[in-house]
Write the structure tokens for this entry.
Amino acid sequence: MDTQSWSPPSDGGNKTMRAAIMAVVTAVLGGYLFLWVMMPTNAYRQTWLPELRSQTASTYFGTTQGATFLVFTSPVMLIAALGCLHLHLRHKSRFNNLSKRSNGGHRLGKYQRPLIIKGLGIVSGIELAFFLMFIALLLWNFATYLHLSFSKITPNSAAQTGEKLWESKLGAAALRLGLVGNIGLSFLFFPVTRGSSVLGVLGLTWEASVKYHIWVGHIVMALFTAHGLCYLIYWAATHQFSEVLVLL
């Protein structure tokens, strides 16, 4: 028997199943990111979210936060489960060692080559792409929040609350900085471990993810620091420090 031409009979089915899993993971990840993009818009807050809450108002999901928990947690859990299956099938493949030598063990291997060496350290193409997409997501959410909130703040509405126009806008900006900071905080809860199925199926290594985790942490600290400073200025300008101290 010619051993060089022999291959396991299930290898073709293995590749097909892995390709199908990656297609599902890509679709779920795209939908998950799309939800983050739509979250600050009126369409999500006024139409989608009330509809989701009405459909999930039960004992299992809760009455108010169950929909948010379901929408933003279930996709990650599904990706993790599919990632476990994908990694299992990839390690089970007979030609796994050969593929690792040829393309780094992943179809995205060429994007894992170092792209930036100085400044941010050794950064690959896929790491830089994820980082830029994350920054774009934060900027989009903050800009959309400000645009929608500032459009409702007028001199008359500010006068009704006994505030100046800039004070009302500062309070709205402080609140939105906290909301944007929550986005980064949610990404910090992604487990960064050597055996993470989410990182493996996305083509991210554990070593690179630790560095990525630190970057996101610094961004979150900067956002929450700005959030707190804006509120301190707002409370000082509106003479609410005494009320805040009583609540504390």
The longest helix spans residues 206-237. The chain has two domains: 8-105, 113-248. The first strand starts at residue 114 and ends at 116. The chain has ten helices and two strands.
